[in-house]
Amino acid sequence: MQKILNWGFLSTARINRALMKPLRASKQTRLLAVASRSIHSAQAYAREHAIPRAYGNYEDLLADPEIDVIYNSLPNHLHAEWSVKALRAGKHVLCEKPLALTLDEADAMIAAAKETGKVLTEAFMYRHHAQTLKVKEIVDSGEIGNLQLIKGAFSFQLTREGNYRFYKEMGGGSIWDVGCYPISFARMLVGEDPIEVFGWQVEGQGGSDDSFFGQMKFQNGIYAQFDSGFKSPFRTYMEIIGSQGVVYVPFPFKPGVKNEITLTRGENRQTIKIRGQELYLGEVEDMCAAVLGRESPRISLSDSRGNIKTILGLIESARTGKPIQIQN
Q: CATH number, domain at 255?
């Protein structure tokens, strides 16, 4: 008989709703509990979303012996602390991006996962979608020739006053929130970390960046450029330029069930239709497969660490006005 994995939500964050449908659609998962900082908010949330158990603090959720997997959707600055606590409580952890805000935090999380033997992986949902896998396949096949330049953007207008994304001390900033996507996408396509980065930022009132503009240099003459922001209209795209062709992805980070990308080679422009699935289903299935020992997580901890290292280099470049070498 297939084991049913019981999941618990560590917080009542809005992003939780994205996982409710796939968790309830899957035959191998059950959404069992939610924790908040007060029992009243946890109970209200549990009633609203038909979650059987509610806890008024995070420790009680971690102490529940029936919980197998924790989804950590806390604000960015709490990802490392509570993921480590969950791992040491014997839980597997799907942690929202970014996995951590410093390399020391990332290394502590990686060490805790290794010590406990529990699965820890980062919730970059787009990485599991058929569209992303198809773009990677096209690039790896050599269909557009040798990679030369990768360009991308992710911006939207953040209007929720007091939101943690505005505050530096809470891991705020557009680069951590949405800029991490084109950075991750570029690194995935190249298959390695950049060797040098340069960045500029527009700082907001809370000390974090409202807008970020970055460049990355990889080995073998491959470059990437991206921008992210909280003050610009909604924009997403990835453009991958090779020596023989170009792939354009209009909705790379939140693809849906029906998707289209374009492949241009000379005068020939081809529209490729890709049938996908519910966006967050892939990361749930990937987590379950890892927990049940069928395969390793698609997003490795070394991959997540590389994304953090790249972001930190870009932030340091914006602070100093100098290019930053990325050490392996």
A: 3.30.360.10
Find all residues with CB under 8 Å of 277, minimum gap 6, and list them.
129, 130, 257
- Looking at the fold, whether 162 and 94 belong to one and the same domain comes out as no
User: What is the model's pTM?
Assistant: 0.96
Residue indicated by tokens 């870009």 = 314
Query: Of the candidates 69, 95, 123, which is a domain's last residue?
Result: 123
Q: Residue 295: inside a domain, yes or no?
A: no
pLDDT at 1: 56
**Average pLDDT for 252-275:** 96
How far does the chain reach from its first CA to its final CA, in angstroms?
44
- SS3 string, 109-133, reads HHHHHHHHCCCEEEECHHHHCHHHH
Q: Does 289 fall in a domain?
A: no
Q: Specify whether 142 is located in the same domain as 119.
A: no
In the chain, % of residues over pLDDT 70: 100
State which H helix or E strand residue 155 sits in: strand 147-157
pLDDT, tens only, 159-177: 888 788 888 999 999 999 9
CATH of residue 106: 3.40.50.720
Mean pLDDT on 1-11: 90
- Is residue 300 situated within a structural domain? no
Per DSSP, the residues of 183-239 read: HHHHHHHHTS--SEEEEEEEE-TTBSEEEEEEEEE-GGG-EEEEEEESEEEEEEEEE
Task: Give the structural domain span for 258.
Answer: 126-282+308-325
Provide the Cα torsion 286, 288, 293, 299; round to 10°: 30
DSSP secondary structure code for residue 166 in this structure: G
Structure confidence by residue, pLDDT tens digits, 47-96: 999 999 999 999 999 999 999 999 999 999 999 999 999 999 999 999 99
